[in-house]
Amino acid sequence: MMGSVVALIAVLMVLLSGLSVGLVNDGVSGLKKLEVSSFAFKSGVDKSAAFTRSIVDTEAADVWAGADGVAESAPFGLTLVNTRTDRGVDVDLALFGVEADSWLVPRAAIGRDLAGPDQVLLAGTLEDAGVAVGDVIEVDQLGRELEVVGFLDGQHTFGHVDVGYVDLRTWQEIRAGIRPGEEAPDHVHREVTAIAVLNEDGGEPDFAAVDEAAGTTSMTLEESFGASPGYTAELTTVQMIQWFLYAISALVVGAFFTVVTIQRRQEIAVMRAMGASTGYLLRDSLIQSVILLLVATAAGMGIGLLLGVSLSASEMPFALDVSAVTVASVFLVLLGLIGAAFGVVRVTRVDPLTALGASR
Amino acid sequence: MNSAMTNTESAGLMMSGVTLLHDDGGSKVRALDDVSLTVSPGEFVAVVGPSGAGKSSLLAVAGGLIRPDAGQVRIGDIDLVTASRRDLANIRRTQIGFVFQSANLLPALTALDQLRLPLTLGHVAEPRDPMQMLEEVGMADRADRRPHQLSGGERQRVGIARALMTRPRLLLVDEPTAALDSSRSQEVVGLLAREAHKHGVATVMVTHDRDVLHHCDRVLQMTDGKLIPVDTI
């Protein structure tokens, strides 16, 4: 009975862990796949919305390029757009604007690499949505057309929206709302969202000093995930549910072993009368709880992983990650043990006198 | 002093002037009243008496489960009254064997594992062989049975064998026939007598069952906390 409850909690843990990793991937997988150490945003930008609020001058890239410990730096643009293909497929895109010759441009898994203006290299998942190489997509409201030249391998998303890589000038004009045939003001081609920075191997730039010189505010790649829309709120919610489950698990296991200890009072009294030490009885009870927790958690994790495999193939943002599942299992067992310890400590209060027919 | 001592040989159990008080609604009741008792190695003593007379209290004090308010309790040269709680647990584990009502076997263990249990509780200098003990009590063919698969008499046989596993100097037996019919009662108490004599264990059995007293070397009556030899009643 108890084993089933712990196993069910373990199943939930795997699912939540998968959901958590899935949400992370859905929110920032596009960023995670960039070979970037940090981003330099506009000085003093709101860090929770840096990708949507920051505008920096492309010249800041030169300041960063000259800094000690920096291997590469390049302008980077990010904006969300609604588009439609010439075959009528609606596609929401997180447009990443990069210089076509920079190290930031990923290689196409299908089709051609990004080579110039008015081209777009799309996340591989969009191929399943009905987009094909050679399609032309039109940016809503602007009428700007982009040719789909290729697809990337696997999931590339930002804020639950698929990523499309475009040439930096194309991105700057789309962001500024320049329609085909219109002349872009000079400042448009100097403005980007951030400067992407790649450190040298083992290099550690003096971020404060370079930020001051470049007029920027730096965030590491991991810190920048928090600037993805909804990322922190979603992750916090899932993590809170996980922590509540851990607490519930500890309470349930504690309550179970309290009941078991009460049920075993006579048995424990007999063992105490026979000379079992308190240490022996505690050890005995805790070993039983460890075995129960390990077996039930392993069984639950196994079932959870099987369910997870099928969920991974669905539309749900779900991804199985060995380390996340392992951490969840370890926490489940550890917190369960803490709960069990509170339950089994009652063995110390069992009076061996009750082993006799009556304690007269 | 109320004395029921009839044997002055080197004692397995020696209780002298033992008094045990119990709280009873604010007043003190003498559960044991100046009790003295000596049981020699290999001697099988029965204590009879009505419920509430103090029989279980006698076992509890002799077994180091409860400390008396006055008097001495010794097993050979070991003083139970001054021993610490930890020492008392060690004394119970190595010097005393308990046979409980209905055997009180652990439900999850087989008969053979019941006998191994006392040996897992701590170091035992010269443990008996569990299988050999099962054979001795006629239970070798039930070694793999769990308590619910055994009859009441069989459970008591296993309980007796378990109590003797550590070669105790004192065997304390609590109402061993409480759940048995008369023929099984005779078998079990006969077995107890044989084992007590064979292994030289000082044995005290409390019982309501007067039909099994002929197996005992000596019979004492417990009344209102006092211990009286039956032939003086």
Task: Explain this structure.
The complex is a heterodimer of chains A (360) and B (233). With 360 residues, chain A is an alpha+beta fold. In chain A, 46% of the residues lie in helices and 20% in strands. In chain A, the strands form two sheets. A six-stranded mixed β-barrel of chain A has the order 3-4-10-6-8-7. The longest helix of chain A is centred in the C-terminal third of the chain and has 35 residues, at 278-312. Chain A starts with a helix and ends in a 16-residue tail after the last helix. In chain B, the strands form two sheets. A six-stranded mixed beta sheet of chain B has the order 7-8-9-4-10-11. Chain B has a five-stranded mixed beta sheet with strand order 1-3-2-5-6. In chain B, strand 8 (170-174), helix 6 (182-199) and strand 9 form a beta-alpha-beta unit. The two termini of chain B are 17 Å apart. The model of chain B is unreliable at 1-9 (pLDDT under 50). Chains A and B meet through helix 9 of A and helix 1 and helix 2 of B.
How do the helices and strands line up, and which of them pair or pack?
The complex is a heterodimer of chains A (360) and B (233).
Chain A: H1 2-32, E1 38-42, H2 50-53, E2 56-57, H3 60-65, E3 70-85, E4 90-98, E5 110-111, E6 119-122, H4 125-128, E7 136-139, E8 145-151, E9 157-158, E10 161-167, H5 168-176, E11 191-192, E12 194-199, H6 207-214, E13 216-220, H7 221-225, H8 231-263, H9 265-273, H10 278-312, H11 322-344
Parallel strand pairs in A: 4-10, 6-8
Antiparallel strand pairs in A: 1-12, 1-13, 2-11, 3-4, 3-7, 3-12, 5-8, 6-10, 7-8, 9-10
Helix pairs in contact in A: 1-8, 1-10, 1-11, 8-11, 10-11
Chain B: E1 2-3, E2 13-24, E3 27-39, E4 44-48, H1 55-62, E5 70-75, E6 78-79, H2 85-95, E7 96-99, H3 111-120, H4 130-136, H5 152-163, E8 170-174, H6 182-199, E9 202-207, E10 218-223, E11 226-229
Parallel strand pairs in B: 1-3, 4-9, 4-10, 7-8, 8-9
Antiparallel strand pairs in B: 2-3, 2-5, 5-6, 10-11
